Amino acid sequence: MAVEILRYCPIKKFNSSQEIVFVLHGLNVTQTNKHIYFSFTLILYIFTIFVNLILIVTIFLEKMLHDPMYLFLCNLCINGIYGASAFYPKILYDLLFDSHVITYPGCMTQILVIYSYAFCEFTSLTVMAYDRYVAICKPLQYHSIMTTRKVWTLLLLTWIFSWLESGFGMGITAKLPLCGLDIDKLYCSNWAVVKLSCADTTLNNLYGFIATFSHISQMILILISYVNIIKASLRSRAERKKFMQTCLPHLITLTNFTISLTFDVMYARYGSNTSLLALRNIMAVEFLVVPPLVNPIIYGMKLTRIRNRVGQMFKRKVAALT
Questions:
Q1: DSSP letter at 24?
Q2: pTM to 2 decimal places
Q3: What is the secondary structure of 144-173 as a DSSP string?
């Protein structure tokens, strides 16, 4: 694919040293509907935080859930809260105060957090696939391979890799002079800001291709892991049961996030601005809204230990209140 270079804009140039305020054009609701959208969005945000915290607290309080698989799941829930909190507070503020602007530092911060969330999610799912591969294909060596030190190292590297990758992308975008301040989205995204640039964006395109290639490589590693996992699962009924309980939720989570993120990336680069606003908004926020909400519910329903532990916690709370 040829590298796309944005044309120079025949309007005033801005740079990051000036007081730049972006205008977000993704929100278009009437005064009547505004309070309905605010209430619905607030409930969705609170519920997302709640279901993720339930799993995090359950895993930390229950010593039997300190296995690598559950620690990786806990990390996935923490990242879900992290990603959701990059989007919900700003959109709630915009709905409540009828504000459609964001400062330059605020925009860059939102880009950093949203992209590091996306990168961390994909890398976490790759690490979880590796963990399931070792657990099912090499069960006798599992505890010698997935040591506590290795688990925490993998978790640390996941976050460091994600922050470095997103930080570099934000850094090269921040150096671009701008010819416009209008962003046709509900939030700031890297490509939306790059499209406003008055300069050659070859480096930004190259960064995008390299980042895409690295995460496609992760997807290939996940697929290779699951080919071996499925082969191993066919050997016995016990292995098939283990696959259904621990690997199926991971596959659902992976598919859900990949489709959501692909929609946003493809639509941001190649979608038409003349299409329905509601469709554009759904495409743009799906990977920020659906995975953080759905992931803990899927794992909570499929993993017996977590489901039983959560049930016991609620029964004790109800008994204490009666």
A1: E
A2: 0.85
A3: HHS-HHHHHHHHHHHHHHHHHHHHHHHHHH
